[in-house]
Specification:
237 residues, 13% helix, 46% strand, mainly beta, six-stranded antiparallel beta sheet, single chain, Jelly Rolls
Length: 237
């Protein structure tokens, strides 16, 4: 089930938590609007905060809109189903011996790759997930049709309109749309609008996809390179 790999929820309103940890998954927040504080750090719109497993975190949202990412997602799926068992939902009070700090990436921050008609920023790169922020111009065309065998490739559209092809079927994705591609599904996408488009691209598990982007941006595209990062080009019939 896809929810075992990752859960992504768009939330809005006033929400807050007390300090806690997750032992087996990461908890991330991309802020779309409103007031949001993450472990006492203010996150303006366009920011991303992430608590890896074992890192104490809490948040306070006031009239905020944000995308909440749990990876892996099984514990959050159990919570949505109504479980309150700490082990099942992987949520525990903050231990006194906890260490480590949450990751905070503000708007415009993150390692960036500039290409023809696009900019990509790395927002997070962990074994359990990689998150990238894309800004692409009209006419931008994404990767050739391909599939992944070991991980989920997902997109949340921040602005504009994308056009996906999923196993040969066309699917438009406008602002606020979320598209998750399971392993084994051939896919590609492009900017289908007349304006720029912005979107988040999530890979779960991460499989060093940040390194894949670095090397692909530097010009590596041979088959052995692609397949070493779980990218398999679709067979052309």
């Amino acid at each position: 089930m896809l929810g075992d790999h990752v859960t992504v929820a768009e939330r809005e309103g006033d929400h807050s938590t007390t300090p806690h940890i997750h032992r087996a998954h990461s908890d991330g927040f991309y802020v779309l609007g409103g007031e949001f504080a993450f472990a006492d750090a203010p996150l303006p719109p366009g920011s991303f905060g992430l608590a890896p497993a074992g890192v104490v975190h809490w948040f306070a949202a006031k009239g905020a809109r944000y995308v909440n990412i749990h990876a892996p997602g099984k514990a959050w799926t159990n919570r949505l189903r109504g479980s309150t068992d700490d082990e099942e939902i992987d949520s525990f009070d903050s231990p006194v011996d906890a260490s480590g700090d949450p990751l905070v990436v503000l708007p415009g921050e993150g390692e960036a790759f500039e290409g023809e008609n696009h900019t990509i920023r790395i927002k997070a790169a962990l074994p359990e997930l990689c998150l990238f922020e894309f800004d692409v111009g009209p006419g931008w065309v994404g990767p050739s049709a391909h599939l992944h065998r070991q991980h989920v490739d997902a997109v949340y559209v921040l602005d504009g309109t994308l056009a996906f092809e999923l196993d040969g079927e066309r699917q438009p994705a406008e602002q606020g749309a979320f598209v998750a591609v399971p392993p084994g599904v051939v896919h590609t996408f492009r900017n289908a609008g007349d304006d720029r488009a912005r979107f988040l691209n999530l890979h779960v598990p991460g499989l060093r996809f940040d390194e894949y982007l670095r090397r692909a941006h530097a010009g590596e595209h041979e088959r052995r390179f692609l397949e070493s990062f779980d990218v398999y080009e679709a067979e052309v019939s």
